[in-house]
C-alpha cells in the first residue's frame, strides 16, 4: 500500500503542496499537459524550478498571471470551470472538494451563505491552478493513504485582500477545526486557507509519530526565506512487498537473434532475470523454455513484450519467493581510477565483493589491459 506522509513542520500552502509532489517525482510534463485541459479565461504561465531553501534542494511551483484581470469568483463559478474541463473525474471531484472546504469556512467566518461567498485570493486563478494541480499530482502518484503531521500555522498577523488578519487566518482556523495545530517562533503565516483545505481534504490522520519505511522524499518550497527551512516535506512509503513471478513459455520456432533480442528487451524493461533452458518437446523437437522473473508491478509490461516479440501464444505464471542478500554499491579508488564494487552481506558479514563489469570494461578499453587481468588486479582484496 502506498502511503504519503505530509511533514508540515513549516506549514502548508497550495504552491508548497504542488512543489512537494513534483519534487517527489510527478512528471512536470504530465502536469502541464493536464492543466491545459482547464479553460481559465485569464492568461498565466507556470514556473517550476529547483531552489535551495536553508540548504535543502526543493521544488518551487509558481503560477504567474500574465494579465491582471480582477476576478471575483464564487463557488458556483469555480465548480463550473472545473466541470467544463476535460480533467479526469478523480481530479474534478478532489478539486471541488477542496474548494468547498474553503467556501464553507469563508461562509462561516463571514456569516454568508455558501454560494454567496466570494473568494478573495483563493478564487483567483493562481489558487485554482494550485488546487487543480495538486489534485492532478496526487492522482498521478496513485496514493492509497495520506497521513499528515500536526500543522504549523505560523503566528502573528498577515495582510491580504481582507486587510490585516491574525494568523492562523480566520478561514484557516475554521478549516483546521479538529486538526492538531501548533506554531513555532516564526511570526508569519505558514499555513494558508488553500494549504489547510488541501490537507484536510486528503489526510486520513494527523500524527507526529508515523513509523514508516521511506521509499522517497520530496520538498516543496515556500516563498519566504527563513532561518528554518521553509519547505513542505512529503514522504512516500510503499509497503507493498512486490510479489515475484516466474513466467515461462516453451518456444521452438525462433532464431538465435530473436531469442537474444527478446532477452535484451525484457531485461531493459526491468525483468529481474531472463534465461533460456534447452528442452526436447514432443516428437523430440529441440526447443527452449523462456524463463522471466518479474515483480508484479512490472508484469503487464513484461507480458506485452513476450506476446509481441516472441512466437508464444501462452505463458505459465508461477508465484515465487526469493531470499536476497543485503547489497550495497561502494565507489573505491584504484590505480586506474574509481571503480564501483557490489558488496553482499549475509547476517552482516561480507560474503561477496564484486567489481562492476561496466567500470572494468571502460578501464580495460581505455588502458588496453586484458579484462581478466583487471578482475585479478582490481579484485577487492587488493582494493
Ligand atoms: O481567499 C480566501 S477565501 C482567503 C480568506 C481568508 C480569511 O481568513 S477569511 C484569508 N485569505 C488570505 O489570503 C492569502 C492567500 O491565501 P491562499 O489560501 O490563496 O494561499 C493568505 O494570506 C490568506 O490568509 C484568503
Ligand atoms: Ni475571508
TrEMBL record:
GO terms for molecular function: lyase activity; nickel cation binding. Residues 315-349 form a coiled coil. It holds the Pfam family Ni_insertion. It catalyses: Ni(II)-pyridinium-3,5-bisthiocarboxylate mononucleotide = pyridinium-3,5-bisthiocarboxylate mononucleotide + Ni(2+). Its EC number is 4.99.1.12. GO terms for biological process: protein maturation. It comes from the Bacteria. Keywords: Coiled coil, Lyase, Nickel. Gene3D superfamilies: mk0293 like domain (3.10.20.300), Transcriptional regulatory protein pf0864 domain like (3.30.70.1380). Belongs to the LarC family. Involved in the biosynthesis of a nickel-pincer cofactor ((SCS)Ni(II) pincer complex). Binds Ni(2+), and functions in nickel delivery to pyridinium-3,5-bisthiocarboxylic acid mononucleotide (P2TMN), to form the mature cofactor. Is thus probably required for the activation of nickel-pincer cofactor-dependent enzymes. HAMAP family: LarC. This is Pyridinium-3,5-bisthiocarboxylic acid mononucleotide nickel insertion protein. It comes from Thermobrachium celere DSM 8682. The lineage of its organism: Bacteria, Bacillati, Bacillota, Clostridia, Eubacteriales. The gene is larC.
Amino acid at each position: 500500500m502506498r502511503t504519503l506522509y505530509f511533514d508540515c513542520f513549516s506549514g502548508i500552502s497550495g504552491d508548497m503542496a504542488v512543489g512537494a509532489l513534483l519534487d517527489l517525482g510527478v512528471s512536470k510534463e504530465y502536469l502541464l499537459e493536464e492543466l491545459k485541459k482547464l479553460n481559465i479565461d485569464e492568461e498565466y504561465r507556470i514556473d517550476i524550478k529547483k531552489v535551495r531553501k536553508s540548504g535543502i534542494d526543493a521544488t518551487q511551483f509558481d503560477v504567474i498571471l500574465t494579465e491582471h484581470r480582477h476576478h471575483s469568483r464564487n463557488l458556483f463559478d469555480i465548480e463550473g470551470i472545473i466541470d467544463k474541463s476535460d480533467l479526469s473525474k478523480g481530479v474534478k471531484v478532489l478539486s471541488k472538494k477542496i474548494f468547498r472546504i474553503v467556501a464553507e469556512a469563508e461562509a462561516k467566518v463571514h456569516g454568508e451563505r455558501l454560494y454567496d461567498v466570494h473568494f478573495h485570493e483563493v478564487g483567483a486563478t493562481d489558487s485554482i491552478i494550485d488546487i487543480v494541480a495538486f489534485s492532478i499530482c496526487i492522482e498521478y502518484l496513485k496514493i492509497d493513504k495520506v497521513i499528515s503531521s500536526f500543522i504549523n500555522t505560523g503566528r502573528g498577523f498577515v495582510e491580504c485582500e481582507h486587510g490585516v488578519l491574525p494568523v492562523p487566518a480566520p478561514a484557516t482556523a475554521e478549516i483546521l477545526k479538529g486538526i492538531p495545530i501548533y506554531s513555532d517562533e516564526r511570526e508569519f503565516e505558514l499555513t494558508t486557507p488553500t494549504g489547510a483545505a488541501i490537507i484536510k481534504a486528503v489526510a486520513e490522520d494527523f500524527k507526529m509519530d508515523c513509523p514508516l519505511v521511506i521509499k522517497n522524499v520530496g520538498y516543496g518550497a515556500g516563498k519566504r526565506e527563513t532561518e528554518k527551512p521553509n519547505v513542505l516535506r512529503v514522504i512516500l512509503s510503499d509497503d507493498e512487498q512486490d510479489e515475484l513471478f516466474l513466467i515461462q513459455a516453451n518456444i521452438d520456432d525462433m532464431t538465435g537473434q530473436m531469442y537474444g533480442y527478446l532477452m535484451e528487451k525484457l531485461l531493459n524493461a526491468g525483468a529481474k532475470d531472463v534465461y533460456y533452458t534447452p528442452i526436447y518437446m514432443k516428437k523430440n523437437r529441440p526447443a527452449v523454455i523462456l524463463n522471466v522473473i518479474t515483480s508484479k508491478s512490472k508484469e503487464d509490461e513484461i507480458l506485452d513484450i513476450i506476446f509481441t516479440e516472441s512466437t508464444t501464444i501462452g505463458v505459465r505464471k508461477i508465484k515465487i519467493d526469493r531470499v536476497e542478500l543485503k547489497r550495497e554499491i561502494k565507489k573505491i579508488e584504484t590505480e586506474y581510477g574509481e571503480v564501483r564494487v557490489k558488496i553482499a552481506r549475509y547476517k552482516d558479514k561480507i560474503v561477496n565483493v564484486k567489481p562492476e563489469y561496466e567500470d572494468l570494461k571502460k578501464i580495460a578499453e581505455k588502458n588496453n589491459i586484458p579484462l581478466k587481468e583487471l578482475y585479478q588486479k582490481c579484485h577487492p582484496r587488493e582494493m
